[in-house]
Design goal:
The protein has helices spanning 35-53, 59-68, 82-87, 97-110, 125-144, 163-171, 222-239, 251-256, and strands at residues 72-76, 115-120, 150-157, 175-181, 192-198, 209-215. The protein has 270 residues and is α/β, with parallel strands linked by helices. The chain has one domain (57-255): Rossmann fold (3-Layer(aba) Sandwich), CATH 3.40.50. Helix 5 (125-144) links the parallel strand 2 (115-120) and strand 3. 36% of the residues are buried.
Length: 270
């Protein structure tokens, strides 16, 4: 009996799929995608939409912040709800009046902190719910080793990246560390980003920030993200600035470490 023709025509790039989450080498059925890959795409698209639109559940992060012993505030942007947040990006960049008053009272009582960590939902509630609690737990002891005090944790409903500048100016913090849910992709609806700014203020721009991106189990590990951030904080404190002028050479710390074996780096004699 003659071999039956395959329903799905395989793609020669298919073997590369083990190295990437990108949709390559999916094959075809006639002129269309195979049904399974079509359904996978629809599921990924739904997960990305949910990450953007689903209201965030702060309970796990609130528990982590409370257990940390670091003072924490729950703040809100000027965007009243998710629909307004998506339609009016400008409102997600500023605190509402009640939150601004909270920060003013806190500073009057405690003074300006050295470091403020801000967690904003951004464009992925999934990322913040899943990754932010673990990232905060990693960051707090690592930052403490820099001999600076994390005096304040803030979590912000309906907040965008620039809302950190508003918070930093109102608190007078030297270092702003902002964790935010990144815009979801079709293979990464749960990616967290960290934006770091030295002496941030409401006149800060994207050029003043450094970004550590794609923090998630399938991307950048929490420990590595924290190591890169701490390197940026040390260098910014030395140089007096962050952003595009501060080149991220954090990898050099690994290459130069005496316990690191790298075939590109000759071993020291003896």
């Amino acid at each position: 009996m003659a071999d039956q023709p395959k329903t799905v025509q395989e793609n020669r790039w298919q073997r590369l799929r083990e190295y990437t989450d990108a949709r390559i080498g999916l094959g075809r059925s006639g002129i269309s995608l195979p049904t399974q890959h079509h359904l996978d795409f629809q599921l990924a698209h739904a997960a990305a939409r949910d990450a953007v639109k689903r209201p965030i559940d702060w309970r796990e992060l609130d528990a982590v912040m409370q257990a940390s012993g670091v003072p924490a505030l729950a703040l809100h942007s000027q965007a009243e709800d998710r629909n307004q947040y998506l339609q009016r990006p400008d409102l997600g960049r500023k605190l509402n009046a009640d939150s601004a008053q909270q920060l003013m009272r806190w500073r009057e009582q405690h003074g300006a902190p050295q470091v403020v960590i801000v967690i904003a939902d951004g464009l992925s509630s999934t990322a913040v719910e899943v990754q932010a609690p673990k990232m905060v737990q990693q960051l707090l002891p690592d930052i403490a080793q820099l001999n600076v005090q994390t005096a304040l944790l803030c979590r912000v409903d309906q907040g965008r990246v620039a809302i950190g500048d508003d918070i930093a100016e109102r608190t007078g913090a030297d270092h702003l560390v902002l964790l935010v849910g990144e815009r979801p992709g079709l293979s990464s609806p749960d990616s967290l980003g960290i934006y770091y700014t030295f002496h941030a203020g409401q006149d800060s721009s994207d050029a003043d920030r450094n970004c550590v991106s794609n923090i998630r189990p399938a991307g950048l590990a929490f420990a590595e993200a924290s190591r890169r951030l701490c390197w940026l904080m040390r260098e910014a404190a030395k140089l007096g600035y962050s952003g595009v002028k501060l080149k991220d050479d954090s990898a050099s710390d690994i290459l130069e470490a005496p316990t690191h074996n790298n075939f590109l780096v000759p071993k020291a004699d003896g």
